[in-house]
Amino acid sequence: MLVAFLFMRSQPKRTVATKSKNSAERGRILTSEACMAEGAAWLARAEPRFAYAIELCGVPPLRRRPDGFAQLLQAIVSQQVSTHAARAIWERMETAGLTEPAAILAADDAALRAPGLSRQKLRYARALAEAGIDFERLREAPDTEVVTTLTAVAGIGRWTAEIYAMFSLGRADVFAPGDLALQESARRLFNLPDRPREAALRRMAEAWSPWRSVAAGLLWVYYRAETNREGIT
């Protein structure tokens, strides 16, 4: 599942927070490196092991990615394939003009299979195109509504929805405990006897609110530091 996280492309950093009447329900948006530093400082005060991770790895960088249909379709494309294969399939879809809902719905099976989509992913791509998600409205929706809206679409699980909320929408208090790298990083950082499962890690992360997205970023950079130290690629 970390493949999709690494594959999604970054967009320029935003420096001004979005203001709206729904901002209280929507929650904090990560808009700058200063936001990440604020969250990291809070986590360091709340949990000594995070303070250690920050001392070792520094403040995790802000990683914002585009939102919208194409970003979710790209996540579907990257499921259960290597980063290299996902990138190649996506490039062929871009070349064929198959990155918008209308194009997906107008294409027959052969056209969608040609770039490398499996039959299952072909169904998922059509389901996403047919869902008619209002992505502009989703930017202002509460975190729970974002996850509920996205997971109602075939082929989009909770992990994908939470990753989208974190990186495409910049939500500050979302966590993706189904991510294997986060589970393994938590095991290492907190000296747990076993890698925590999704439900256990979700409960554990409740103590990191309202900065769970920053906690996830910190766990990811700690995981990379640990695996690089061990020579794991």
What would a concise description of this structure say?
By secondary structure, the chain is mainly α.
What is the CATH H-level superfamily of the largest domain? Hypothetical protein, domain 2
Secondary-structure content class: mainly alpha
CATH topology category name of the largest domain: Endonuclease III, domain 1
Q: How does CATH name the architecture of the largest domain?
A: Orthogonal Bundle
Number of continuous helical runs = 15
- C-alpha geometry: globular
Arithmetic mean pLDDT: 90
Q: Please give the alpha-carbon distance between the first and last residues.
A: 15 Å
Strand content: under 5%
The overall number of domains is 2
Please identify the top-level CATH class of the largest domain. Mainly Alpha
Helix content: 55-70%
Radius of gyration: 18 Å
* Biggest sheet statistics: none
Q: Could you spell the SSE succession in H and E letters?
A: HHHHHHHHHHHHHHH
Stretches with pLDDT under 50, minimum 5 residues: 1-21
Let me know the number of strands: 0
Structural description of this entry:
Helices cover 60% and strands 0% of the residues. It is an all-alpha fold and 233 residues long. The chain has two domains: 29-63 and 173-229, Endonuclease Iii, domain 2 (Orthogonal Bundle), CATH 1.10.1670.40; 69-168, Orthogonal Bundle (Endonuclease III, domain 1), CATH 1.10.340.30. α4 (48-57) crosses α15. It is globular.
List strands and helices in order, with pairings.
Elements lengths: L1 H6 L15 H4 L6 H14 L1 H10 L11 H9 L5 H13 L5 H6 L2 H5 L5 H13 L3 H4 L4 H9 L6 H11 L11 H10 L8 H8 L6 H18 L4
Helix pairs in contact: 3-4, 4-15, 5-9, 11-12, 13-15
